[in-house]
């Protein structure tokens, strides 16, 4: 049976790909903008949380890259002080916990939050304080870690990589690079990735979303990525014949054989043009072929989504049941950057019992 939205909300969920600056509450943006004098867009002359949230969604759905990127100009602009960063981080944890997320890795680029004089360390400390407050408010129902992102079109990746290593015992789980893929291959940051490997550190790379197979190949074979952010274009290396049989190319076979996790974000992929609909999203075939698929939100504000909504959309499109959602969730927990024993504890003590109770309740 297709699970209900209520069942999905109550199911334990794991989130690996969520941007802090893409998940603010609209009212928080209004409050923080007023404090710093930042001018926000209005909808029909109104400035309410509802109208601002609608503007973010419509701008992100517009098909215009310029309008989509403009949305982040507004969120980043109000995240330049310690109190603002702490509030945004705390509320992110509260919102995820309320949605049934039991483990989350939330990423952001510290270099984008130093415009008012904060140091990189002060940015990370402010976010960590917010995460700690959010976890305390949730009474330990969620575990949260930071992923520190470097922007691929800039030249601070080594600095951010060193920052992630310096903070890895204080709430930071790993490193990431993000930004436009075309023209900015991950190999431009090879020194940072080699440093992270020498330090036995974890990292993921945005690849295979805005660019094709070369982006994925470089992220894995040149840079040594532990996970792929999105990775949706791996579908270009898979052939589905008229008789329904499937042939994997060498790169796709390698990704599946090595169990390299794919951080898939269905709703976001529709907005960026990486997929045309949920029903046609490559996640369906990749799941059927048993790639290490995980389900994620990417930018909850811009996509007007949550983990529950992402899973509900997939359940409706592909007929997934609670057993399938449990599979996605365990995939994600296995792929997290937590130590093995901590991953196993969450799987055995939280995820499996949580889904077992829902399955029993549903009688499936």
From TrEMBL:
Keywords: Hydrolase, Metal-binding, Nucleotide metabolism, Zinc. Its cofactor is Zn(2+). Residues 12-352 form the Adenosine deaminase domain. Catalyzes the hydrolytic deamination of adenosine and 2-deoxyadenosine. Binds 1 zinc ion per subunit. Pfam families: A_deaminase (PF00962). It comes from Nocardioides aquiterrae. Belongs to the metallo-dependent hydrolases superfamily. Adenosine and AMP deaminases family. Adenosine deaminase subfamily. The keyword DNA damage does not apply. It is an enzyme of class 3 (hydrolase). The active site is at 209 (proton donor). Substrate binds at residues 19, 21, 179. This is Adenosine deaminase. InterPro entries: A_deaminase (IPR028893), A_deaminase_dom (IPR001365), Ado/ade_deaminase (IPR006330), Metal_Hydrolase (IPR032466). PANTHER family: ADENOSINE DEAMINASE (PTHR11409). The record marks 230 as: Important for catalytic activity. NCBIfam families: aden_deam (TIGR01430), PRK09358.1-2 (NF006847). Its EC number is 3.5.4.4.
